Amino acid sequence: MTMEFATRYRGASRIPADPSKPYVIEKGEGDRAHLFGDLVTVYAGGEQTDNTFNFFTVEGPKGDIIPAHVHADTHEVFYVTQGAVRLFAEDPEGEQLERLLTPGDFGFVPKNCAHAYRMERHHSQVVGVAAGPGGTFERFFESLGTPVDEMGLPAQPFVPAPHKFGTVPQEYDVRFLPDHQWRTS
After folding, report:
1. CA-to-CA distance for 55 and 1, rounded, in angstroms?
2. What is the secondary structure of 59-93 as a DSSP string?
3. What are phi and psi of 133, to 5 degrees?
4. What is the pLDDT of residue 47?
5. Are 149 and 29 spatial neighbours (Cβ–Cβ below 8 Å)?
6. Sheet of 124-131: strands edge to edge?
7. Which of 32, 58, 62, 171 is at 20 to 30 A from 125, Cα to Cα?
8. CA neighbor of 143 nearest in space, from 165, 126, 125
9. pLDDT averaged over consecutive 10-residue blocks of the chain (185 residues)?
């Protein structure tokens, strides 16, 4: 059984805020949010790691590319556990990379590199870890998306209102690049 704790972000969280205490969370029982067609589950974030890293999963159906974005102070890891995910990334000199990641494949995007991804198969899942001097950004998912208690994908994609995208860079290390073009497939 997973206990619930109140935090500054949620009335009920399955993640204890005290960074000095070990804890275990059962599969899928982290803090969940729907964003676009995906379910994001956070298992550890800034409160638990003194803002040094976060750990989350994103699972979703085959779908559209998520918007291109960049993190000025955060490195991000993509580790695929199910399905297939196409990772798009661009280094600061403009060289682009596109790779299809399947279970067991690992992708790393350093800070200041534009990136995006697309689920290529239904029931795909990515384990994400982000770390850097700017802190963590896991609460971005429920801020831009919508927090949920239930497990599973959204019945309908949750697309945030356009004005919400403008508020994200001030609170989280996520800057969207609406005009970014991928020169790859």
Report:
1. 20
2. EE-S-PPPPPEE-SS-EEEEEEEES-EEEEEE-TT
3. -65, -15
4. 85
5. no
6. 106-109, 75-82, 124-131, 53-60, 38-44, 31-35, 146-148
7. 171
8. 165
9. 60 79 89 94 91 94 93 95 98 96 98 97 96 83 90 92 79 89 82
